[in-house]
Structure formats: C-alpha cells, structure tokens
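Usage

Read records sequentially. Each one opens with the input sequence:
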Amino acid sequence: MRLRALLAVALIGASADTPDAVHKPLTVTIGKGDLLEFSNDVQRVAVAEPKIADAIVVSPREVMVNAKGLGRTHVVVWAAGMGAARY
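and closes with the structure output:
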C-alpha cells in the first residue's frame, strides 16, 4: 500500500501583498519527493511540520519537497523579488 502525504498548496504570485491565492493540493508519496522550480533565486524555506515533510534547496532556483510521514503540512518558499510561495 502506498501512503501519501498531502501538502496544502496556496501559490502566491509576484508579490507577498497579492490578495488572491490559487489553492492547489500537492500530494507526495511517503519516501518520495517533488521538485519545485522558481524563476528567481530561492532565499529561504520553512516547513510547518517537519515530521510530515522536509524541503531542501537543491539549486539556486529549485526546492525538493520530500514526504516523510502521513498527514498535512505547509511549506513556504521565499524567492528574490517574488514574495512567498505557500505550499
């Protein structure tokens, strides 16, 4: 049986002040990951519940999100000039 962790997604556009967010779920199988790509350099990353997932900057414009446990969490990625992307 393949277990999946659900990461809640709300991707913010060009500015952190953008009032409208698009909500889209990101589902990752435990023990696997998903690569997020950005058009600008990533400055920092935060994970709300590290028992569920982790996020690793693998290049200046790529973040790998790895599912570690069953559940839901949020990942926030700040990229230069783009505000925060919330997953």
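Summary fields computed downstream for this record:
- Residues 8-23 have pLDDT under 50 and may be disordered.
- The first strand starts at residue 4 and ends at 7.
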